[in-house]
Amino acid sequence: MIKAGIRRVMRLKIWSDLRGQDLIEYALLSGFIVIAAATLMISVTKTVSQVFDRITSTVNAAATGS
Which residues form the domain of 45? Predict the structure, then answer.
């Protein structure tokens, strides 16, 4: 009975239909790009924050006349 059910599932058209394959590949690729971009943004955020801190300290020093 279980073997007959397995045979019935294996005969379904979903195993031979490749139309959805591209969609899955694009979804995996976009997921990888999102993870890579998030990792890059974390490192860029620290650098940008340091630049703005330097600008702030320079402007404050110029404003106080030091």
Answer: 19-64
